[in-house]
């Protein structure tokens, strides 16, 4: 029964008669002219009412959509830059809605049924319409009589009464939509703003706004997780941009941020994005030779590095990483300089503060030293200078003077440069010897390796001492000057006291000495503070550049990996499920990867000879340069442990390339099951020379290979945590970021680690520690 | 007035339609002189008579069922017979029987003695009190207009119209009509108890020494003419479609039909609906049947043709209520 009920009545009849006036013959038209005239009126009124009703509904719907979009935009879920696209979309929808509202027509037969129903017609009009259009014609007499009576009835029909103007449906929805629209645009929606804690980034004290909840509207260039990270990166860079003073860095950061935004919103394609990112990477401030600030931390470092200038080699070059510094090496050097300066100054301040008078200032300086925040220390020293001028007792002045003196003594450990110099000299000597004799004895090899290790360790701990030395000297000079001034003033006062002996004069001199001491302390402290703040500013700028560069490269890697992401994820999930059946395919793949390229018949002999010469030259370079980098050695160990993926002795292969290949071809670098069994170092060069090596492109599937899981329990053994979570997080996140940067992890895994640290980031107010 | 509707020209047709309309209104007015109120019942009886169907009247005793039949027969000037159905009534008591009679030449022969069925209007009073055997004696007469007794078949006069009555209260000792018998009735009309005003009028008209006589306004031939004319009355396809959908809906597998009906109406119901709608249109002075006619006649046509199930009995639902729901479900 419902199927009968659901079937619209009169459909069959409507089909039979066609429901089109064009099918009425002229005779039929003339016969039922009155009925047709009435039906025309019905159709017009119906069209008007229906159109208005539909328009109201469309407007209501549009209003609700607009309100929703407004809420989403204001809450930050949709970026406001999408406004233009939203406007176009809204215009299109409005156009289609308008078309839908007006593009309808009531069929003639339905109009007749409607008129019959509304005007008590007892189917006069519909029957007349059917009889007039029926072929062959039915009883002519009946048709004529029926048409006459239908016409007569239709002429008497009052259409206004039969089809009165009805209030269009949807007015309530329209009112609701308007209210929503007003609310969404007019009322403050602070509760919609993204909430969340801050991610502190080292000394910049940056706040990373959390990723907007839910809706991501960017194109499918990147995955959802990657887009969230890109969005966070853009927000982070914006924050950094505000804090950095350097105009050039500011501009560069803005350009990086723009590319991030474009990628996030899908405005540019992958190729364009990669091109722009590559260009920005090239134009990075401090990346060119003109700007040596980045490399050494200060434009005057060139002058301050006579040894380097004379020898034409930087200390790292001596360490074996090649004469032209790579961008990574420069960045690493910058970081080392920053760390060394910060550490030295902070250590000096910490030690000097042992003799400082108790008080808030001492605590503040201590905290700043613990944080290694040079900028903050500069501010505090300025405050100290002001305080010394105003309300500081003689005792306090004296103590602070001692502090300044000790700080001047402690800042910059003079033993470190000497140690550096000694190790560098030893390495250089041993290398020269090897070059001269074509090899080294076992004892010399051990000495060379040991020196390199020590150099690496020193570099890690103190950074590039040549770069840091100048900065520390400036600080030391200023601090010492302050201390000397204070000491001289005190001595002058003592001398006056001994000579004159008169009480009044003594008092007068004491006052003068105090004033002098105050002035001196203030002046010199201010000078030291200025210097420290300047260093802090440079530190911030360099840090900002590094962060920008890191984000930029992350995005490049992510974009490059974007096409392979799904496959990698599937492989990862398959491995997570421990699907041994599929894993059994790996050896075949590995074999395939290590298979050598067969020689082509008829290959040019001279070309072979040239290749052989090139290989030998590379092997020599590998022997000479060695596998100095620790990570490179690890990678080779892992590689050798597996024994299949890469050939031994490729010492000339850049470290980063090796890492990338390893990460693509197998597991984590150097994490093979038999990792560490290989003997890295100069012997590898021999092996390579002995092997019939050739240069070939090694390809591997991303994410394949075994992996190692290890639980580090060292921290847990030390007992319960004594630090607040914020402090722990700040340390750990910094270390994690550095490791992410330095290790050749796949981009997909980087995103996971970042995501993890984002999730464990301390949130809430101060109460949550 | 012997020409068929389809053979008439436009003028004649207009004249014929006007005449029919006027006669039917006159007939109704004449009946209304005797029968107070009961407009739907009167209209149903007239439509049944002119459409060639039979009508089953159901109502409590004393509401004017027999009076209606008698008045109608008087108004159309037709022969009228009345049979009071009792349990001991035999079929021969209705259709007649062969009796041994003197042939006038000294011999004796069997001659057919016609029963009361040989009439134009038969009133089968309290038809459910007779046994099914006796009730079935009416089957052939109602369906085919003839009677077969032994080897002889006798054609009944036209028009032949049966009006049966039954009492819904005294069900003890009755024999409910079988479905085949019920299906022969075009309408089943419920004769309601009169309203207070109608009762006042009934008292005023009847409780006095003056007896109202109904003058004939139509004859048997006129009835046949009107019937032929009505059958030619045009009806739109969607009206026919509605009638079909209504009948189909009584067999439906969902809704009220599924809930309360055990069996639906027969195709004879569609015929009854269409013919009744046409007749009602003419009765109203229109020249085309309308959906309103079909909806109006749906209940009297289908009421006795559907069988309620146990749920309906348990819920106290009557067929009219189920049909109202079905009509609402089918819509237009």
Percent in helix of chain A: 55-70%
Which term fits the overall shape of chain B? globular
What is the beta-strand fraction of chain B?
A: 15-25%
From the N-terminal CA to the C-terminal CA of chain B, the straight-line distance is 36 Å
Mean pLDDT reading of chain A:
66
Q: In the CATH hierarchy, what is the superfamily of the domain at 233-332 in chain B?
A: Magnesium chelatase subunit I, C-Terminal domain
Tell me roughly what share of residues is in helical segments of chain B: 40-55%
CATH topology of the domain at 233-332 in chain B: Helicase, Ruva Protein, domain 3
Order of helices and strands of chain B: HHEHEHEEEHHEEEHEHHHHEHHEHH
Low-confidence parts of chain A: 1-19, 192-220, 288-325, 580-604, 624-691, 765-769
DSSP E strands of chain A, number = 0
Instruction: Determine Rg of chain A (CA atoms, Å).
Output: 41 Å
Mean pLDDT of chain B: 86
Strand order of the largest sheet of chain B: 2-5-8-1-9
Quantity of strands of chain B, as a count: 11
Strand content of chain A: under 5%
Which sheet architecture does the biggest sheet of chain A show? none
Counting H and I runs of at least 4 residues, what is the number of helices of chain A? 34
Walk me through this protein's architecture.
The complex is a heterodimer of chains A (769) and B (332). With 769 residues, chain A is mainly α. Helices cover 69% and strands 0% of the residues of chain A. Chain A is built from 34 helices and no strands. In chain A, helix 4 (33-75) packs parallel to helix 10, helix 11 runs antiparallel to helix 24 (503-561) and helix 20 (394-410) packs antiparallel against helix 23 (465-500). Chain A starts with a helix and ends in a 10-residue tail after the last helix. In chain A, 37% of the residues are buried. Chain B has a domain at 233-332: Helicase, Ruva Protein, domain 3. Chain B has helices at residues 10-34, 39-51, 65-75, 92-95, 132-135, 139-144, 179-183, 196-206, 220-231, 237-249, 255-260, 267-283, 291-302, 310-315, 319-330; strands spanning 55-58, 80-84, 96-102, 108-114, 121-125, 146-149, 152-155, 161-166, 187-190, 261-263, 307-308. In chain B, the strands form four sheets. Chain B has a five-stranded parallel β-sheet. A two-stranded antiparallel ribbon of chain B has the order 3-4. A two-stranded antiparallel ribbon of chain B has the order 6-7. In chain B, helix 10 (237-249) packs across helix 12 (267-283) and helix 12 (267-283) packs across helix 13. The longest helix of chain B has 25 residues, at 10-34. The radius of gyration of chain B is 21 Å and the shape is globular. Chain B starts with 9 loop residues before the first helix and ends with a helix. Chain A binds chain B through residues 1-5, 7, 9-10, 12-13, 16, 113, 116-117, 121-124, 126-128, 130-131, 138-146, 149, and chain B through 5-6, 8-10, 12-14, 17, 232-239, 241-242, 245, 248-249, 252-258, 281, 284, 286-293, 326, 329-332.
């Amino acid at each position: 029964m419902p199927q009968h009920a659901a079937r619209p009545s009169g459909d069959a009849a409507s089909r039979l008669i066609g429901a089109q006036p064009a099918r009425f013959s002229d005779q039929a038209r003339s016969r039922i002219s009155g009925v047709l005239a009435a039906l025309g009126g019905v159709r017009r009124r119906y069209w008007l009412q229906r159109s208005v009703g539909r328009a109201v509904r469309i407007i209501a719907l549009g209003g609700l959509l607009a309100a929703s979009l407004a809420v989403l935009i204001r809450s930050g879920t949709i970026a406001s830059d999408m406004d233009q696209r939203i406007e176009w979309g809204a215009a299109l929808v409005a156009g289609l809605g308008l078309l839908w509202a007006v593009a309808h027509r009531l069929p003639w037969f339905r109009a007749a049924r409607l008129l019959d129903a509304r005007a008590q017609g007892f189917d006069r009009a519909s029957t007349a319409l059917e009889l007039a259009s029926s072929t062959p014609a039915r009883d002519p007499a009946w048709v004529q009589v029926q048409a006459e009576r239908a016409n007569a009835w239709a002429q008497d029909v009052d259409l206004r009464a039969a089809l009165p103007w009805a209030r269009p449906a949807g007015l309530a929805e329209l009112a609701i939509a308007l209210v929503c629209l007003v609310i969404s645009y007019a009322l403050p929606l602070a509760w919609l703003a993204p909430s969340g804690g801050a991610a502190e980034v080292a000394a910049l004290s940056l706040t990373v706004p959390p990723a907007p909840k839910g809706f991501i509207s960017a194109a499918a260039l990147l995955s959802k997780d990657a887009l969230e990270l890109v969005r966070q990166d853009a927000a982070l860079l914006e924050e950094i941009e505000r804090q950095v003073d350097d105009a050039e860095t500011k501009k560069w950061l803005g350009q990086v941020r723009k590319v991030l935004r474009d990628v996030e919103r899908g405005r540019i394609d992958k190729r364009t994005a990669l091109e722009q990112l590559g260009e920005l990477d090239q134009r990075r401030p401090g990346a060119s030779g003109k700007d040596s600030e980045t490399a050494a931390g200060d434009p005057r470092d060139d002058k301050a590095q006579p040894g380097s200038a004379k020898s034409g080699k930087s200390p790292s070059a001596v360490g074996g990483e090649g004469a032209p510094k790579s961008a990574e090496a420069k960045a690493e050097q910058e970081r080392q300089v920053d760390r060394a300066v910060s550490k030295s100054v902070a250590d000096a301040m910490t030690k000097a503060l042992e003799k400082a008078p108790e008080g808030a200032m001492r605590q503040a300086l201590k905290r700043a030293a613990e944080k290694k925040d040079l900028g903050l220390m500069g501010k505090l020293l300025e405050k100290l200078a002001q305080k010394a001028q105003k309300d500081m007792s003689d005792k306090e002045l004296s103590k602070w003077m001692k502090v300044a003196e000790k700080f001047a003594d402690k800042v910059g450990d003079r033993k470190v440069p000497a140690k550096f110099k000694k190790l560098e000299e030893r390495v250089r000597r041993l290398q020269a010897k090897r070059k001269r004799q074509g090899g080294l004895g076992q004892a010399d090899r051990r000495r060379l390796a040991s020196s390199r290790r020590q150099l690496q360790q020193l570099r890690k701990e103190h950074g590039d001492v040549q770069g840091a030395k100048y900065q520390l000297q400036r600080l030391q000079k200023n601090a010492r000057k302050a201390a000397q001034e204070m000491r001289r003033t005190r001595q002058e006062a003592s001398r006056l006291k001994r000579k004159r002996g008169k009480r009044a004069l003594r008092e007068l001199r004491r006052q003068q000495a105090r004033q002098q001491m105050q002035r001196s302390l203030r002046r010199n402290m201010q000078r030291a503070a200025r210097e420290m703040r300047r260093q802090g500013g440079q530190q911030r700028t360099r840090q900002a550049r590094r962060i920008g560069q890191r984000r930029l490269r992350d995005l490049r890697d992510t974009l490059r990996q974007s096409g392979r992401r799904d496959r990698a994820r599937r492989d990862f999930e398959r491995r997570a499920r421990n699907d041994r059946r599929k894993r059994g395919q790996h050896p075949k793949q590995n074999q395939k990867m290590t298979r050598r390229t067969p020689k082509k018949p008829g290959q040019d002999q001279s070309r072979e000879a040239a290749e052989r010469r090139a290989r030998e030259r590379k092997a020599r370079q590998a022997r000479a340069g060695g596998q100095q980098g620790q990570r490179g050695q690890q990678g080779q160990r892992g590689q050798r442990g597996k024994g299949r993926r890469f050939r031994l002795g490729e010492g000339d292969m850049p470290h980063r390339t090796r890492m990338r290949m390893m990460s693509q071809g197998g597991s984590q670098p150097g994490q093979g099951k038999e990792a560490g069994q290989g003997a890295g170092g100069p012997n590898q060069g021999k092996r390579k020379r002995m092997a019939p090596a050739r240069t070939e492109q090694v390809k591997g599937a991303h994410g394949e290979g075994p992996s190692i899981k290890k639980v580090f329990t060292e921290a847990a053994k030390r007992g319960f945590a004594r630090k607040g979570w914020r402090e722990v997080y700040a340390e750990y996140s910094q270390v994690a970021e550095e490791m992410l940067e330095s290790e050749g992890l796949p981009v997909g895994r980087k995103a996971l680690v970042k995501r993890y640290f984002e999730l464990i980031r301390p949130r809430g107010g101060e109460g949550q520690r | 007035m012997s020409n068929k509707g389809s053979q008439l020209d436009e003028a004649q047709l207009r004249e014929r339609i006007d005449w029919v309309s006027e006669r039917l209104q006159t007939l109704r007015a004449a009946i209304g002189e005797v029968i107070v109120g009961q407009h739907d019942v009167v209209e149903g009886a007239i439509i049944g008579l002119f459409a060639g169907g039979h009508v089953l009247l159901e109502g409590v005793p004393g509401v004017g069922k027999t009076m209606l039949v008698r008045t109608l027969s008087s108004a159309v000037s037709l022969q009228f017979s009345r049979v009071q159905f009792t349990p001991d009534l035999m079929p021969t008591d209705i259709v007649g029987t062969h009796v041994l009679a003197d042939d006038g030449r000294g011999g004796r022969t069997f001659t057919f003695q016609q029963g009361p069925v040989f009439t134009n209007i038969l009133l089968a009073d309290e038809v459910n009190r007779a046994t099914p055997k006796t009730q079935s004696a009416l089957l052939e007469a109602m369906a085919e207009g003839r009677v077969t007794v032994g080897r002889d078949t006798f054609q009944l006069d036209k028009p032949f119209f049966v009006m049966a009555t039954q009492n819904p209260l005294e069900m003890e000792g009755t024999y409910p009509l079988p479905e085949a018998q019920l299906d022969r009735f075009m309408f089943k009309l419920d004769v309601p108890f009169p309203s207070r005003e109608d009762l006042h009028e009934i008292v005023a008209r009847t409780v006095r020494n003056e007896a109202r006589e109904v003058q004939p306004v139509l004859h048997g031939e006129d009835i046949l003419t009107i019937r032929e004319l009505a059958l030619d009355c045009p009806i739109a396809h969607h009206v026919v479609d509605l009638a079909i959908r209504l009948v189909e809906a009584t067999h439906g597998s969902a809704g009220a039909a599924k809930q309360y009906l055990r069996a639906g109406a027969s195709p004879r119901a569609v015929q009854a609906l269409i013919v009744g709608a046409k007749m009602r249109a003419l009765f109203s002075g229109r020249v085309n049947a309308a959906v309103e006619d079909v909806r109006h006649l749906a209940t009297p046509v289908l009421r006795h043709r559907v069988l309620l199930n146990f749920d309906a009995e348990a819920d106290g639902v009557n067929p009219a209520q189920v049909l109202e729901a079905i009509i609402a479900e089918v819509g237009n």
